[in-house]
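Journal club prep — side note

Before the paper discussion, L.F. wants everyone to see what a predicted structure for a comparable chain looks like in token form. Sequence:
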Amino acid sequence: MSRDLYAAYSGAAAAWRHLEVVANNVANANTDGFREARVSFKLAEGPSADSPLDGAFAEVGDVTYSQRDGSLIQDGVSTHLAIRGEGWFALADGTYTRDGKFRIDAEGQLVTEDGTAVQGEGGPIRFQPNERMLVDSEGRVTGTASGEVGKLRLVGLDGVQALGGSRWTGRPSTLTSVQVLQGARETSNADPMRGMVELLEASRYFEAQQKAMQASDEMRARLNRIQGG
């Protein structure tokens, strides 16, 4: 592969990855607790395993996730919780979420919409039948019949990685600022208007790199015909 063709190819591959990330942000603009992804780019100096030709070529860097708070919807549902700050709700399956649309299941446990138990510092949060849940700003949970039943396990996360939808993984870290709000839920922190602009820009860049690849290929074909003639 010629140097100019490889440069265009690497640029197209980077643009395509950017398109994928931004399109996923836009698609999840209404997913509660979603964290907007940002992709970085760098110049890779050849020769290397990925860039076998001399010169600088586009390369996709890390994908990171915005930790800024999403907007709040005050819905008044007592089992719905929202976090302000850098915390995450810990779940029994080892994943984490910012989507606080919780409910109390038939066994009296506080669970996610799909039934995964929400973790307290001492294990699952449980209630007696028909009692109402109260949660303070520090995550202490009280039942109207049981009294205090536990404290939500809230963690910081380093190296956040998406698992799909509103589930995430990462390395638990110490929290420095967190507040829990009851009767509210946090929406996605993705900006759909900015996402649409970025989609257009990335699409144009991808198309430009495609044209550069086509031009390089045509030039090489002409050169081959001249040399063959």
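L.F.'s comment for the group: Residues 3-68+190-228 form one domain. Keep this in mind when we get to the figures.
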